[in-house]
Design brief:
- The complex is a heterodimer of chains A (109) and B (115).
- Chain A is mainly beta.
- The radius of gyration of chain A is 13 Å and the shape is globular.
- Chain A is 0% helix and 57% strand.
- In chain A, a hairpin with a 4-residue loop joins strand 9 and strand 10.
- With 115 residues, chain B is mainly β.
- In chain B, 35% of the residues are buried.
- The termini of chain B are far apart.
- The chains are: A mainly beta (109), B mainly beta (115).
């Protein structure tokens, strides 16, 4: 069974708006990672947050982690049409990643 | 560097046929993984390897076998394909068991259709 559950399953916004995706998981983790997948392509790593971190930034990306609630969120600020993709959270509990079902983001120009 | 490459890109099989998917990485990574992705779902781990000559079962290993005879290659075999194995298969690798080696690098995927 999959550990991560993502919300929403699909999100449609206008260019320039912010996009927020949420991920919940069930067991303890070493770190949580976010990946992006463009249609028909492999996954690309975006950002990693460790279990002892609460927030991390990378460019227009901001990730938060709340281990007490077993949840994480990914915020993409000032979205662009090129951000259109599926976004997956993945939990690492010991060398293996367990992926959520993903959020499909559509950014309209 | 080519990164992680997968061969073939697309394949059609008949039920009962066998085939091998090849994954190659040129980054000298220790760990390698095979996943499958079905429509509307995330990736599910089939098998993985933590080093040359080692393999281990993941979440959905039934119907698949793997081998890691060389560090740079990880092969996924289907001995007798079934329609339920129609999927997109992704290979990934990561440096190893270090704090900076946790990110996985993915190949472009192999689309497999079993009729």
């Amino acid at each position: 069974s999959q550990q991560g559950e993502e919300d929403p399953q699909a999100l449609s916004i206008q260019e320039g708006e912010n996009a927020t995706m949420n991920c919940s998981y069930k067991t303890s983790i070493n770190n949580l990672q976010w990946y992006r997948q463009n249609s028909g392509r492999g996954l690309v790593h975006l950002i990693l947050i460790r279990s002892n971190e609460r927030e991390k930034h990378s460019g227009r990306l901001r990730v938060t982690l709340d281990t007490s609630k077993k949840s994480s969120s990914l915020l993409i600020t000032a979205s662009r049409a090129a951000d259109t993709a599926s976004y997956f959270c993945a939990t690492d509990g010991g060398g293996k990643l367990i992926f959520g079902q993903g959020t499909e983001l559509s950014v309209k120009p | 560097n080519a990164g992680v490459t997968q061969t073939p890109k697309f394949r059609v099989l008949k039920t009962g046929q066998s085939m091998t998917l090849l994954c190659a990485q040129d980054m000298n990574h220790e760990y390698m993984y095979w996943y499958r992705q079905d429509p509307g779902m995330g990736l599910r781990l089939i098998h993985y390897s933590v080093g040359e000559g080692t393999t281990a079962k993941g979440e959905v290993p039934d119907g698949y076998n793997v081998s890691r005879l060389k560090k740079q290659n990880f092969l996924l075999g289907l001995e007798s394909a079934a329609p339920s194995q129609t999927s997109v298969y992704f290979c990934a690798s990561r440096p190893g068991w270090t704090l900076t080696g946790e990110t996985q690098y993915f190949g472009p995927g192999t689309r497999l259709l079993v009729l």
